[in-house]
Amino acid sequence: MLFEIHHSIRFRYERPVFLEPMTVRLSPRQDVTQRLISHELTVTEAPAGHSLIIEPDGTDARVLWFSDKREHLHLQVRSVVKTLRCNPFDWILTHPPAQRLPAAYPAAEAVSLAPSRSTSGSCDPGSSPVGIWAAGIAAQVEHSTPDFLMRLADDIHHGFHHIGRLDGEPLSPEDTLSSRCGACRDTAMLYVTACRSQGLAARFVSGYSMHHPPEVSEHELHAWAEVYLPGGGWRGYDPSLGLAVADGHVALAASPDHLMAAPTTGTYRGTDVSSQLSYTIELKASDSEPEPGEAAA
To answer: What pLDDT is attached to residue 119?
Structure first.
């Protein structure tokens, strides 16, 4: 599927402030699931300088820095992406201890995956409310890893009230589970935590989706989860939609911590100065192939 993306973000400040360096994660990633055909970021007014970087989890990002005070900052992104994965189930589990829950990984992979397997809070993640809930779902599917991943996504999709929440960090997984209510970033972190309680490596993903959750009337930045499967690699699961991710999603960033998948990260200096953030996302998708000779910019 061919995606055309126009994402505009405006920051407005009550009076001139000095912007500290800002990290921008709005470049669609390039991997076996998607190909970046073109990408352009326009910053108004232009920063003093910028640097293209690769972040700890492999995310392509851009760091902007500034030398003057300003009352506004406008980021405009235009991207064209070809998604490539039509079948989200084209994998096999090559490590038997990962086929059943709680899952285990080969030693070398376990070291690399450690940040995506760690849990906060209780020393025994299985005894937490989320862990107990996840264990119940695992028991329903006889501890089959593939069946658990789909049942977990389906249970969240059908059993939770999905809401639109324009700003704020994800709620704690415990709060989302208790209220059975949340935005896509809330249910994504609940999914991640439930998977980790069963020994699976899972991480938070931000990006775009052509599939609208019922609570969304306009395109917004979307969030889902990825789970690492020996023999299958990182595989996406979208609990707010109840599906395995195929070619209807475009990923921007993925990280064990949602903070490292935020579209922008930065601060400003100004005493008692309030700020406002607004955005628009235009998303078009078609089955058309890109023109011959087009390449990523």
So the answer is: 80
Give whole-number Cα distances, 284 to 37, 107, 281, 289, in Å.
Answer: 15, 43, 10, 14
- Judge whether 83 and 247 are in contact, CB under 8 Å: yes
Supply the pLDDT for residue 50.
Answer: 97
Give the residues of the chain that fall short of pLDDT 70. Answer: 120-126, 212-218, 288-297
Angle (nearest 5°) at CA 206 between 245 and 242? 35
Structure-token pair, residue 151: 């049942």
User: 23 near 38, Cβ under 8 Å?
Assistant: no
Given a contact cutoff of 8 angstroms between Cβ atoms, the answer to whether 27 and 60 are in contact is yes
Beta strands per DSSP E along the chain: 2-19, 22-24, 34-44, 49-54, 60-65, 69-83, 161-162, 181-182, 202-209, 222-229, 233-238, 243-244, 249-255, 264-265, 268-269, 275-286
